[in-house]
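User: Can you help me understand a structure? I only have the sequence.
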Amino acid sequence: MRVGTGYDSHRFADDRPLRLGGVDIPDHAGLSGHSDGDAVAHAVIDAILGAAGAGNVGSHFPPSDDQYRGADSIELLRRAVHVLETHNYQVVNVDVTVVCESPKIGPHVDAMRAALGKALRIGPRGVSVKGKTNETMGWIGRREGVAVHAIALIDSADGFAGPDA
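Assistant: Let's start by predicting it. Here is the structure, written out as tokens:
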């Protein structure tokens, strides 16, 4: 078994929709970024790739490559899972913390767990998502953007039992 951590942050951008964990969140500014700006998916990608010693989101999906402009980050997560499989690993579980003053994450947790669990091929039981505020401190407290922390546990594909075992 191996563990990896991931982190991502993006500024809010009024000119695009907000997507976190593969879920569109209405009535809120989106996140800047080369792809769709889904900081949750990006942090999870970094966590799973890091656990496998297989690079990071930028090394596999570089922002300098126009094919990833506006890309669906859940699709990028699926591709990262494929990279893990080529290294003979599978995801066991992930834990995600979204740090922002707004939007409220709680109402979207179940949908995020479902979207991430499907992309990771582990189902929602293998995914934890929670929201935290920054108690109005710093750039997050000023509502300038979102930060996300993720941790992933992976195991060799030969010994993988899955979260429901």
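Now, to help you interpret it: The CA atoms of residues 16 and 30 lie 5 Å apart. The beta strands are 2-13, 18-20, 23-25, 30-31, 89-99, 127-132, 145-156. Let me know which part you'd like to focus on.
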